[in-house]
Structures
1.
Amino acid sequence: MYKRKAYEKLLLWKEESCGSTAMLVEGARRVGKSTLVEEFAKREYASYALIDFSKVSKEFKQLFLDTRTDLDGFFLYLSALFSVNLVPRDTLVIFDEVQLFPPAREFIKHLVTDGRYDYVETGSLISIKSNVKDILIPSEEESMKLHPMDFEEFLWAMGEDGLAQIIRASFNERRPLPDDLHRKAMRFWNEYMLVGGMPQAVAVYADKRNMDAADRAKRLVLKLYREDIDKYGESGVGRLKAIFDAIPGQLSKHEKRLVFSQVEEGGRARDYASAFAWFDEAATVNLCHACTDPSVALALSKSESAIKCYMGDVGLLATMAFSSTGDSMPEVYRHVLLGDADVNEGMLAENAVAQQFVASGHDLYFYSKWAPTAEDRMEVDFLLVKPYPDAAMKPRVSPVEVKSGKRYTTKSLDKFKLKFGKRVGERYILHPRQLAVDGDIVKLPLYMAGLL
């Protein structure tokens, strides 16, 4: 298993919970939930029992239901069926793909109260209506989201721990990397924009640097996501498919917000609320909402009608946009690897940055002001709330612009500062060039996005 930051979160849960809660690890399909949890069980417990509800028989499910009121009998059955010695306070019981058998999730309450063992659940589409119908969600359940691998985890998988470490040190000390290391980091960033962070794609690419094999792995994931829409989309299947398939086209435009009428003739924002809620639950996309009046409480002026819809993984976006069929590496991939800034106006770079922000725990917001003249228009790619050194580290709104080319202006950042004044903290530009600080504008290489 590749090193994942979520492992440390599981360690902290084990230490602080001491069996008083179960942990639910949720996220999109194929992001590595089962692999992470089983590796955690192997390393941190004397024994573990893995119950995969995508594989267990109907007989097991019935026995599970029959023994819920007899915990001693349940544990004896579990020990015998999985050939595991259950050690009090040193065994982890894993309910894998728990959304496929909701009664198991409800049973967590009684198991945690019993206190003999620790419990981790994994699931996708965990709160879709059909998966929570007629069950009581246990209050003893904590949860954490596992995302596709971020850029730092990608570097670890590629055996570049040292490069990851020096990038982090460079960010913390606000000093640029030596030029040769900067060029190396940018090469890996360009590879990351194509491969992405789905563990299967990263594994085959890390093994032989084979982009074709990575694409094949990603096409299988995309196929699975479309099958999930068919299976769980209920009455909204058509609209869900339309949004999903429209993402590359919408992101390839200069203004990357979703234009509903282009997704569906006559489409309006209010028609899509349930579809966006479904995608948010499935975690296959990252939604970025317009913020109409930016302040440190960005959610207070969140718009439900102006939305940018990024893919949850930039590698999947690359495959959808440029390599949905065929086995040979598309020519556009070569342009990306060579650092060509004009690949669909930087849609891969912006999607990759959004992915890093989400993995770091940020909600996604942007700011846009339309005006008849270009001089009065303003578009800021992302808004973050961060401590501001010039305000005694009090939180301020930090506008972030993503630049895939080396030549650009700071007009939008300047207009934003002029309009919102003291609400604004440090302003950031993420670009392919070296780190540089110019007053309150901090210019960071794209590969440092996940450190913000």
Note: The chain has a mean pLDDT of 91.
2.
Amino acid sequence: MSPLTTLPPDLPEPTDDGSARHLLGMAWPDIALPLTDGSALDRTRIAAAARTVIYAYPRTGVPGEPLPTGWDEIPGARGCSPQSCAFRDHHAELAALDAQVFGLSTQTTDFQKEAAERLHLPFPLASDADLAVTKALDLPTFTVDDMTLVRRLTMIVEAGQIVHIFYPVFPPDRNAEDVIAWLEDHPAH
């Protein structure tokens, strides 16, 4: 296994700082984000689906390249690839629950394409490199090595409205299972 797809046992657990509470009930903004499959994630696409799961993550690493400064010490930073792999591994279950899945980060689409291909993701990743959605929704962020990154959170969107938030997400490799459990307990309207 790659060090990027496994989690160290002593990762610091993030705490709920309240910075995602305002998201519940918000409408998804009318902003189109480029996806790794060449299409776009926008309000129309989200509103047309029964349910949309959007997991926001700080950034995926690249094998052989160093992680950002102090990455393992930043609560909630490490685990983007394991989180993506968990959504990959549970994709069929999510689809059976009428949920489309997208990952979202502030990395560029070209950077995300490498990760999507390497991790064999069956769903596209959305690039918010210009921080348009991050600013419109006031998503929680942090800065490291001059990069503004989104804190790990997962949003469930129905009919274009955010109906549930998972924040903070820890451990990240269990997030997909937590989402499935919530979807099973809360049938779509």
Note: The radius of gyration is 15 Å.
